[in-house]
Amino acid sequence: MKKLYFILFFNLLGLTFCMAQQWEVIPSGTNGTIDAIHFFNDQEGFCSGGFINILRTNDGGETWTNTGIDGYRDYSFVDDNIGFAANRIAISTKAKTTNGGINWTTLNSPNGNSLWSVSAIDSQNAYFTGTGGIVWRTTNGGQSFSNKSTGGTQTVTDAYFQDPLTGVIAEQSIGIRRTTNGGTTWNTVWDYQGPSLTEMCFVNDNLGFVVGSNNNVLKTIDGGITWNVNSVGNLGAFQGVDFFDENHGVIVGLSGEIHYTNDGGNNWFEQNSNTSNHLKDVRMLSATSAIVIGDDGTILKNNGITLGINNYSKNTIKLYPNPTHDTFRISSQETIDKIVIYSIQGQILKTLNSNDISLSIDISDFKSGSYFVKINANKSSEVIQVIKE
Question: Which secondary-structure segment (H or E) carries 19?
């Protein structure tokens, strides 16, 4: 009877874990590409694309309504009412709203460069970026614009400005540039001669992240002056990134790729998105819930993100016995570098460094229950669920 109870408990626990990771497909009512998403709070938000109308939700993304308003490819809001929008389709429209996106006014500005992003500081100051190394700046709420060229010719895919003068931009095949004088001059702070950088997310004026089509996630803790690189996943063609706070974030990419972190990007856990569609962007509604958008009208939602079960290598890693009472052993074909044990809620409980292919782990002081063990071996990682009896 005790053994039967344990088996039932384990099955229920496994079922709960699978359900917690489930990315639910939300009907969007469109088969067009959804590129941009913005939420005012955990209930109210909207999403759109260059060829589809703005879709709006007031129930946390469970249902979406077509507003009939032409969409844009990027948004930046300074509060719940005032925001700016950019569109790289047709005449590269710049627009502004003063009522939370219910109505948009097209801004008169020079055309000719396809727009990719917008970063608004306040109701008067905003920067638009696009092709040809061009950055457009307004200091009067969009009444007029000045050209702040980076000096390059590549597309500026995204920007973040912490005040009217200080900001960073991501430029394809160039890297990251930074200005402290409103774009009059730019300094290259991270030189990158490779595939494109696609999107950046700043949690605050110091902590920021940049992703791109190169398996890398870049992180800064000093406002973009210096950057560190973390390699993530197998495909790594990342398109979007968002953080709820300093620790919890999600990155998305091509072919349905989703990764989640709960420790500020030090470790990333692959999620099962249940789709092969290209995913374009993400917004986190809480530390463990997020909305993902992408091609073919894709909208995904997860209300309980947990640590995924992933395996980035062909290395065979074994953990035994499992279930266990006090200790278990890990063996690997490659040298084990690091082991991290997490609670089912994602809290780090124990960290061990190693330089061996086999070692024993003591969890006699752990309570009975389910845990996750992340094993790093030769620049790859695997997460295994272990049961403490």
Answer: helix 2-21
Chain-centre distance for alpha carbon 340: 23
Residue 250 has φ and ψ, to the nearest 5°, of -135, 140
Alpha-carbon distance of 269 to 260, in angstroms, equals 5
Which residue in this structure is represented by tokens 């308003």? 69
Tokens 């390699």 correspond to: 231
Express the helix, strand and coil content of the chain in percent, nearest 5 each: 5, 50, 45
Q: In whole angstroms, give the CA distance from residue 117 to residue 45.
A: 18
Sequence-distant (≥ 6) Cβ neighbours of residue 170 within 8 angstroms: 156, 157, 158, 159, 176, 197, 198, 199, 200, 210, 212
Whether the Cβ atoms of residue 291 and residue 39 lie closer than 8 Å to each other: yes
Low-confidence ranges of the chain (pLDDT < 70): 1-21, 89-92, 111-112, 193-195, 233-236, 308-315, 344-346, 379-381
Question: What's the half-sphere exposure (Cβ side, CA atoms, 13 Å) at 75?
Answer: 30
Tokens of 186: 């730019």
Q: Which amino acid is at 181?
A: N
pTM for this entry: 0.77
